[in-house]
# Entry
Amino acid sequence: MELPLYTSLSDFEKFYMKDFADQEKLNYLDFLINQSDLYNILAQNILDVGKTKISNTTIESEELDLYDKTNNSVNKVLEIIRFIEIEKIKHSESLKSNIKSENSETPENDFSDNKPLERMIILEKLGVIKYIKSLQNDGFNEKQTAEILSSFTGITSGTIAKNLGVMLPHNKKDTDKNSPYKNSKNLQLANKSINRFNIDLTKIFQ
# Structure
């Protein structure tokens, strides 16, 4: 099927997707490449015809008029070509992105369902809590520590503050109702997760 050629970008933008849908043989990128070739030929033809007409006239005013008309026509076609080239780049980048997504490995393990008390034990055993406290201007401000931990754990700062109050070394009370360690199952589940992290525990922040 022979596709129409447009002389303005507005017309091309309005109909080019319909033209693509009407043809069956080409994929989108090949369609754009084909269109780019056709419009480059069209631009060259307009130039050639314009040069011929200009060379055949001896009237200066007609020559200038022909030059302006030829130049305007070519510029309109060049706008279409630029649009096509941008579409080609966008489509190519989209294909690369899709391929990258398809090739991305899906993690084998997901820990998003870990309960808050399990998370607190994991954070302590990985040295995260101690590390955050080392960064604070006031490392003894457990309220602030709780706020920081709350920002990325999804656990409320109030709950974390209660946990910290009885799980840090200076006031550790594993039997307290607010301690994540009160229920031994929390520790078992936390250790199970840590064992699946595949990390070197000797490198944990001390």
About this structure: Residues 9-103 form one domain. The radius of gyration is 34 Å. The chain has a mean pLDDT of 87.
